[in-house]
């Protein structure tokens, strides 16, 4: 089945953004609107656009910020609200927030009445370049991430970097890891801009280029049969690092460390040159610090990874900066040896 992932609307500033959103609503058939946000995006983002005419009438559903809200109880609470408010398939949910809100709201909308309309307004860097693109909507189960969900494209995504003004710097740097990833797997120009200065990546031009890498890949392979696995670069190790107890890493920080380790594996498997590995190492360590690898805890977590089809561990590896390959399957013992070698190198 084809999915149309194309409608992404970019605005340089809030004025332009509000005009585009207003136009979208004036072109759409009359509908009721619900705006989903968390406490932080209500305070920092909704207030920037609250004067839009269609928002004056909108119902607002606010949830607690953080990953803990991305669960079935909160989804149920939103479904019940929609039902009590007599929402139909023709009505629309605006997801105003980071990846947590986009995933949760996208999932609720995709399943309510077997699918109502929804749009994403991502307000974190990570959500702009990653979570609001590509149609994956879902929730967590028993503290395990993204176990229940659908692939279903939003009607549109509206992107405006002005929302980043209030986002804590740590969240921005963390989100930049996904754009660094897009550069490493598919666009060396993004990588060069990151090497010049990481903050280059927060401009609208680079946000667009980053999204183009993901859009291109998801259009080729919406259901992750092949090419889409490229987007998992850095995530096999990254997800494990994110889930090691007490690590306290944000998603992008863990992915940055995961990319360094997986670039090391790419070098050791003689795909990537030592020179390019060293460039990656320098950029990641200077912005995200040194990774700490506890080999036993990481091994337990990667073996549970939902991407593995057998006892082998599935990696996307780099061939050069800007080029990657999928389905490199390694035995766990080999991975452990490589992690040990990595620890000795740093
Ligand atoms: N669907 C996908 O393809 C996809 C891809 C990547 C990540 N994700 C999901 O995205 C989630 C992570 O997203 P995230 O990093 O955006 O986290 P998040 O949505 O939890 O936002 C991070 C923090 O920033 C706050 N915030 C958001 N926008 C703000 C703003 N403009 N000003 C001030 N504070 C603001 C939030 O309230 C929260 O406290 C995870 O659940 C992850 O699984 C999904
Ligand atoms: Zn990620």
Unreliable stretches: none
Can you say what the CATH homologous superfamily of the largest domain is? Dehydroquinate synthase-like - alpha domain
Structural Rg: 20 Å
> What spatial form do the alpha-carbon principal axes imply?
globular
CATH topology of the largest domain: Dehydroquinate synthase-like, alpha domain
Describe this structure as you would to a colleague.
By secondary structure, this protein is α/β, with parallel strands linked by helices. The chain folds into two domains: 8-166, Rossmann fold; 169-345, Dehydroquinate synthase-like - alpha domain (Dehydroquinate synthase-like, alpha domain, Up-down Bundle), CATH 1.20.1090.10. Helices cover 49% and strands 17% of the residues. The chain contains 14 helices and ten strands. The chain has helices at residues 14-27, 39-49, 53-56, 72-84, 99-111, 125-131, 169-186, 188-196, 204-220, 235-243, 251-268, 274-288, 295-303, 332-345, and strands at residues 8-10, 33-38, 59-63, 92-97, 117-122, 136-141, 144-151, 156-159, 313-320, 323-330. Strand 6 and strand 7 form a beta hairpin. Zinc ion binds next to helix 11.
């Amino acid at each position: 089945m084809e999915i149309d992932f194309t409608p992404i609307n970019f605005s340089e500033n809030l004025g332009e953004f509000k005009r585009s959103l207003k136009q979208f609503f004036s072109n759409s058939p009359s509908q009721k609107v619900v705006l989903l946000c968390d406490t932080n995006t209500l305070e920092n983002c909704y207030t920037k656009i609250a004067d839009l005419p269609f928002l004056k009438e909108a119902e607002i559903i606010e949830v607690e910020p953080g990953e803990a809200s991305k669960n079935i109880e909160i989804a149920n609470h939103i479904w019940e609200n929609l039902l009590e408010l007599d929402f139909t398939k023709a009505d629309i949910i605006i997801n105003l927030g980071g990846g947590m809100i986009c995933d949760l709201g996208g999932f609720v909308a995709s399943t309510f009445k077997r699918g109502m309309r929804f749009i994403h307004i991502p307000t974190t860097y990570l959500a702009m370049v990653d979570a609001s693109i590509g149609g994956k909507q879902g929730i967590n189960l028993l503290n395990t991430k993204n176990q229940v969900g659908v692939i279903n494209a939003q009607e549109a995504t509206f992107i405006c970097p002005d929302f980043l003004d209030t986002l804590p710097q740590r969240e921005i740097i963390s989100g930049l890891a996904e754009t660094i990833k897009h550069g490493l797997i598919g666009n060396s120009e993004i990588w060069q801009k990151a090497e010049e200065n990481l903050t280059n990546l927060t401009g609208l031009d680079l946000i667009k280029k980053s999204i183009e890498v993901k859009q291109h890949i998801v259009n080729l392979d919406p259901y992750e049969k092949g090419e889409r696995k490229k987007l998992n670069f850095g995530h096999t190790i990254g997800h494990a690092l994110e889930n090691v107890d007490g690590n306290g890493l944000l998603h992008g920080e863990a992915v940055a460390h995961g990319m360094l380790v997986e670039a090391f594996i790419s070098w050791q498997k003689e795909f990537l040159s030592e020179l390019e590995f060293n460039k990656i190492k320098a950029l990641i360590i200077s912005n995200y610090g040194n990774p700490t690898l506890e080999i036993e805890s990481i091994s337990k977590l990667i073996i549970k990874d939902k991407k593995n089809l057998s006892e082998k561990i599935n990696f996307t590896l780099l061939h050069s900066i800007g080029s990657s390959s999928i389905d490199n399957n390694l035995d766990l013992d080999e991975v452990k040896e490589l992690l040990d070698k990595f620890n000795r190198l740093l």
